[in-house]
Design brief:
single chain, alpha/beta, OB fold (Dihydrolipoamide Acetyltransferase, E2P), Rossmann fold, 4 domains, 7-stranded parallel sheet, 6-stranded parallel sheet, 22 helices, 22 strands, 37% helix, binds adenosine-5'-diphosphate, binds magnesium ion
C-alpha cells in the first residue's frame, strides 16, 4: 500500500525548492499531487502537414531541420534563434526568443516535432516559441497533453513530469474508494485507471471516462456527508419544544392582508418544527416580495410568547432598520419588544441595549454582523432568523446559533435555487418554498433592448421620474474598466458623470457602489428611500431587499453580464408599491444565447423557472459562486455541467443513508472513508 500522505518533496523530480512551489499551489502530499487535475488538455496527437495549417491556430507539425539553429544576439541578454524546417509539403520558419540552448538540442538533417501557434502571411509560414521534441522521444508533442492551473514559476513541463512521477508511485496501488458493485452498475472506471487517465488520457474518450468516475466520487462524498451531518443533528441534539398553546393564528388573523396558501403551508412546516424537540434547521426560499419576512415574524411571535428571545440577522444596516420598523409594526401590539443593533450607535446607547438583551428585556434583536460579536449575550435565545443567507457563511450561522441553547434556525433566501442544487448547497437544512406571490403584486413589465434604443430608454426614465416615481440604473462594474475585455462595460462612476452632467442633468442623480463605506452607502440609500434622490446609479449592492415602493423603473446596463437569477433578484427591487413597474435590460452582443437569456427574463417572472432555464442554457459557469455558501469548492465536479450525474448521485446517496444511516455496514466502509476524508479536510463544513 502506498502512503498517500507522504510529503510531496520526496517525489522524484521535486526536492525542497520545487516542493515549496508546489506548496503554494496547495500541494503538500502525494495525494494532493495526484488529485491536482488538469484545467485543460491540448491535443498534440494529430500531426498536420505544413501546407494545411491556418493562420492563428495551434498545430503540431513534423519536419526536418534544414540547418543548425541560427542564433542572433541583440545584446548580451537578448537573442533570437531561427530554424527552417521542411516536411514533404512545405517549409516553416521557427523562431525562439532568448533560448540559445535550443541550438544544442537540434541537429541538422534530423526530424523533430513542433507544437505552437502558426502565423501565415502571404506564402511564408512561421511558428514562434514552439514546444519541440525529437520524433523518437516525444514528451511534449504527439499526444494529448494536460495543462495544469499554474500561478508561479513552475513550468507546464515541470509539473507534468512531477505528476507523471507521482502517478508512477501509485500506479495500480490505489485502494478502491467505491463499493465494487457500483463500478458495474454506474459504468465507472476503477480508481487506478481513472487517476492515471485524468492526467494522461490516450484519447478524449479516456478523459471523459476518467472524469465521470472522479466526479462521481466527489459528488457522492459531498452529498453523503451532508446527509449524514443532518442525521447527526437530528438524532443527537435536544432543542427547544415551543408551547403548543401559543397559536400563530393569533397574529395571522390580525394581519391587514390574507396570507397566501404558500405562506400558510410554510408556517405549518415551521410550527411543526418548533413544537418538536429537535432543533429546526430550515431554509425558506421564496422570490423577493413573496412574503418571507412576515412568515419569520409570525414564527418569532410563537418563540417570544413561549418565553424565548429571537435574533434576526440582516446583511446590511439599512435592511436591519427596515426590518425593525416592520417587526414593530406587526408585533409591538402584542407587547413584544423589538430593538436593532447596528453600527454607528453611541457607546452609551449600545451598552444600554446590550444590557437589556442580556437581562431579557428585549425580545427580538435585529441587527447586522454586529450581533455576532462576543459582547452580545442573550438571556434566553431560542430562535434565530438569518435573512438573505447568501451573504452569510455557514460559519457565521454557527456563531449566532452558539449564542443560544440549540435554538431553532430559519434561513431565508431570495436566490432561487433548483432543488438539486439546494440539496448540495444546503444539504444540512430542510427546505420550504414560497412559490406564490401575494395577489396584489404587480408584475414587473420587462423589456430587453440593444444599444439602439438608448435614447428611448432615457426618455422613458424621464417620463417616470416626472410623474413622481424614482429609478434605478444598475451596472456591473465599479471603477473604469481595467482590462480590454471589459473596456466597453459601463462603470458606475463613468455612467454617473454622463448621466448627471448630460442625460439627466435636470434630475437629482446619485450613485452607490460596493467600495463605498457602509455609512455612505446607508446615507445614500436612506435618501433614496426618502425620495430625495430621483435616479440612483448603482452596482448590485442594491440587490439585497431594501424596500422603496416609489421606485417604479430599473434599467440594467450590460444585462448580458449578469446571471439570470441575479437579474431576477435585481428587478424585484421595483414593483413593490402600487405603481406599474418596469425593468429594462440593455444588452450588448447579439449571440443566440444572450438573446435567449434575455427573452426568458421578459417572459417569465418565476424565479425557479428562471434559475432552471439559466442552468440549461449556460451549461456551465458561474451560476452563483459556491464559495459564498460556505461549501468547499469541488476539485473536478461542476454542478452545472454535471447536473445529470448529480441527480443520479443524489438518489443513490439518499438510498444509502436510508438503509444505513451511519454507514456502518461492511460494504459501505469505503464510502465512510471517502466522506471522512472530504469532511475533515474541509472543516468549515462541520457546523
Ligand atoms: P420578502 O421578505 O419575501 O422579500 P416581505 O415579507 O418583505 O417579502 O413582503 C413584501 C411586502 O408584501 C411586505 O410589505 C409585506 O407586508 C407584504 N406582504 C407579505 N405577505 C403578503 C400577503 N399575503 N398579501 C399581501 N401583502 C403581503
Ligand atoms: Mg426580504
Amino acid at each position: 500500500m502506498v502512503d498517500l500522505n507522504q510529503d510531496v518533496k520526496y517525489v522524484k523530480g521535486v526536492g525542497p525548492n520545487r516542493g515549496k512551489l508546489l506548496n503554494k499551489l496547495d500541494i503538500y502530499t502525494l495525494k494532493d499531487l495526484i488529485t491536482y487535475y488538469p484545467r485543460n488538455y491540448e491535443d498534440r496527437s494529430i500531426i498536420t502537414k505544413i501546407k494545411d495549417v491556418k493562420d492563428g491556430e495551434k498545430y503540431t507539425i513534423e519536419g526536418t531541420a534544414l540547418s543548425e539553429v541560427n542564433i542572433r544576439y541583440i545584446n548580451r541578454n537578448k537573442s533570437y534563434e531561427k530554424l527552417l524546417i521542411k516536411d514533404d509539403t512545405d517549409t516553416c520558419l521557427i523562431t525562439w526568443f532568448n533560448q540559445p540552448y535550443v541550438k544544442d538540442n537540434i541537429k541538422k538533417g534530423k526530424k523533430y516535432r513542433f507544437y505552437g501557434k502558426v502565423s501565415k502571411k502571404n506564402s511564408t509560414i512561421e511558428m514562434n516559441s514552439p514546444m519541440y521534441d525529437s520524433v523518437e522521444k516525444s514528451n511534449n508533442t504527439g499526444k494529448i497533453i494536460p495543462i495544469y492551473p499554474l500561478t508561479n514559476s513552475l513550468s507546464q513541463s515541470n509539473i507534468r513530469k512531477i505528476i507523471e512521477n507521482g502517478i508512477k508511485i501509485v500506479e495500480n496501488k490505489l485502494q478502491e474508494t467505491l463499493p465494487i458493485s457500483y463500478l458495474e452498475e454506474y459504468h465507472l472506471l476503477d480508481i487506478n485507471k481513472a487517476t492515471k487517465q485524468i492526467h494522461f488520457p490516450e484519447s478524449f474518450n479516456d478523459f471523459h471516462l476518467a472524469r465521470k468516475r472522479l466526479v462521481f466520487d466527489e459528488l457522492l462524498s459531498m452529498q453523503l456527508g451532508l446527509l449524514l451531518l443532518r442525521n447527526e443533528n437530528e438524532s443527537e441534539i435536544k432543542g427547544i419544544k415551543y408551547d403548543k398553546n401559543i397559536q400563530m393564528s393569533d397574529v395571522i388573523n390580525d394581519l391587514p392582508f390574507k396570507l397566501t396558501k404558500a405562506q400558510l403551508r410554510v408556517l405549518e412546516d415551521i410550527n411543526e418544527d418548533m413544537e418538536k424537540e429537535k432543533p429546526m434547521n430550515r431554509l425558506l426560499q421564496g422570490d423577493v416580495g413573496s412574503g418571507k419576512t412576515i412568515v419569520s415574524m409570525i414564527a418569532a411571535y410563537k418563540a417570544v410568547k413561549s418565553g424565548y428571545q429571537v435574533s434576526v440577522l440582516a446583511p446590511t444596516m439599512i435592511l436591519a432598520k427596515q426590518h425593525l420598523i416592520n417587526f414593530k409594526n406587526i408585533l409591538e401590539k402584542y407587547g413584544i419588544v423589538c430593538e436593532a443593533l447596528v453600527g454607528g450607535m453611541s457607546a452609551k446607547k449600545k451598552k444600554e441595549l446590550l444590557e437589556k438583551v442580556a437581562n431579557g428585556e428585549v425580545d427580538i434583536l435585529i441587527g447586522t454582523h454586529a450581533i455576532l460579536e462576543e459582547n452580545v449575550v442573550f438571556k434566553k435565545l431560542g430562535f434565530v432568523v438569518t435573512d438573505e443567507q447568501h451573504r452569510f457563511g455557514v460559519k457565521q450561522r454557527a456563531k449566532i446559533v452558539a449564542k443560544g441553547n440549540n435554538p431553532d434556525v430559519l434561513v431565508m433566501t431570495a436566490t432561487p435555487i433548483p432543488r438539486t442544487l439546494a440539496l448540495i448547497l444546503y444539504g444540512d437544512l430542510d427546505i420550504s418554498i414560497i412559490d406564490e406571490l401575494p395577489p396584489n403584486r404587480k408584475k414587473v413589465e420587462t423589456f430587453a433592448v440593444s444599444k439602439r434604443y438608448e435614447e428611448r430608454v432615457n426618455e422613458f426614465v424621464k417620463k417616470e421620474v416626472k410623474s413622481g416615481r424614482q429609478a434605478y440604473i444598475v451596472c456591473p462594474l465599479v471603477e473604469e474598466a481595467e482590462d480590454e475585455n471589459s473596456a466597453n462595460l459601463k462603470s458606475v462612476t463613468e455612467l454617473y458623470e454622463k448621466y448627471k452632467m448630460e442625460v439627466f442633468k435636470e434630475y437629482k442623480v446619485e450613485y452607490l457602489h460596493g467600495k463605498m463605506k457602509p455609512k455612505e452607502k446607508d446615507e445614500i440609500m436612506n435618501r433614496f428611500k426618502a425620495g430625495e434622490i430621483e435616479i440612483l446609479i448603482s452596482t448590485t449592492v442594491i440587490e439585497v431587499g431594501v424596500d422603496v415602493p416609489n421606485a417604479s423603473i430599473m434599467v440594467i446596463e450590460n444585462a448580458e453580464r449578469f446571471g439570470l437569477a441575479q437579474l431576477h433578484q435585481l428587478r424585484g427591487r421595483v414593483g413593490r408599491g402600487e405603481y406599474a413597474s418596469y425593468c429594462v435590460l440593455k444588452y450588448n452582443g447579439g449571440n443566440d444565447i444572450v438573446r435567449q437569456r434575455m427573452e426568458i427574463m421578459t417572459k417569465t417572472d418565476n424565479g425557479f423557472t428562471i434559475a432552471e432555464k439559466d442552468l440549461q442554457l449556460r451549461g456551465s459557469g458561474e451560476f452563483f459562486g459556491t464559495k459564498q455558501h460556505g461549501i468547499p469548492e469541488f476539485k473536478i465536479a461542476n454542478l452545472f455541467q454535471d447536473m445529470e450525474a448529480l441527480k443520479e448521485v443524489q438518489s443513490l446517496a439518499i438510498k444509502i443513508v436510508n438503509e444505513d444511516p451511519k454507514l456502518e455496514k461492511e460494504e459501505n466502509k469505503p464510502l465512510k472513508l471517502l466522506v471522512k476524508e472530504k469532511f475533515t479536510s474541509k472543516a468549515e463544513l462541520t457546523i
